[in-house]
């Protein structure tokens, strides 16, 4: 299975375009965005394209270190700038390995031109693998039953 298949299944569930924020958005605005869309991370984009990713975990870590003053600071202060990405035609197994090895929960998906086309979470990957395994199981049960 390919990542593009995972993205298509998310679109089929009514999931729209990737939610992004600018690096100048405040952490408070970021939190509003996360809550509004019921998501755990957003891509940070500027006129240059993808410049980072920031998650609710980043906010918690920085709140602990800096206190509530971080809420009025720009997202660029807490985002991860060295973003690991994937391509639509990457194998789900490869992405699972990357996410596990790098301890990443959200991975932006870029097309060949470097444009953002989606984001996959570890939950999306697990859901797709479960679906794939259930389909294989059903095929095997059908094969055995037909004999």
Describe the protein's architecture and organization.
- It is elongated, with a radius of gyration of 18 Å.
- It starts with a helix and ends with a helix.
- The chain has helices at residues 3-12, 27-37, 56-66, 92-102, 122-146, and strands spanning 20-21, 41-46, 49-55, 106-110, 116-121.
- The protein has one domain: Roll (CBS-domain).
- The strands form 2 sheets. The chain has a 3-stranded mixed beta sheet. Strands 4-5 form a two-stranded antiparallel sheet.
- Helix 2 links the parallel strand 1 (20-21) and strand 2.
- By secondary structure, the protein is α+β, with helices and mostly antiparallel strands.
- It contains 5 helices and 5 strands.
Structural class per helix/strand content? alpha+beta
Largest sheet: 3 strands, mixed
- How many β-strand stretches? 5
Structural domain count = 1
> What is the number of helices?
5
- The CATH topology is CBS-domain
- Which percent range fits the helix content? 40-55%
CATH superfamily placement: CBS-domain
Quote the beta fraction.
Answer: 15-25%
Which CATH-level-2 architecture?
Roll
Instruction: Spell out the helices and strands N to C.
Output: HEHEEHHEEH
**Distance between the amino and carboxyl termini:** 28 Å
Alpha carbon gyration radius: 18 Å
Query: What is the C-level CATH assignment?
Result: Alpha Beta
Low-confidence stretches: none
What would the average pLDDT be, to the nearest integer?
91
Shape: elongated
Major sheet: order of its strands?
A: 1-2-3
């Amino acid at each position: 299975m390919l990542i593009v298949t995972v993205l298509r299944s998310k679109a089929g569930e009514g999931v729209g375009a990737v939610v992004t924020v600018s690096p100048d958005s405040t952490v408070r605005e970021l939190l509003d965005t996360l809550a509004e869309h019921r998501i755990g991370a957003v891509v940070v984009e500027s006129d240059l394209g993808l410049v980072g990713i920031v998650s609710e975990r980043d906010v918690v870590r920085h709140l602990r270190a800096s206190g509530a003053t971080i809420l009025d600071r720009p997202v660029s202060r807490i985002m991860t700038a060295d973003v690991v990405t994937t391509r639509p035609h990457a194998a789900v197994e490869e992405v699972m390995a990357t996410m596990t090895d790098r301890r990443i929960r959200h991975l932006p998906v870029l097309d060949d031109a470097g444009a953002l086309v989606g984001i996959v979470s570890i939950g999306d990957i697990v859901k797709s693998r479960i679906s794939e395994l259930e389909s294989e199981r059903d095929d095997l049960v059908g094969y055995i039953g037909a004999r």
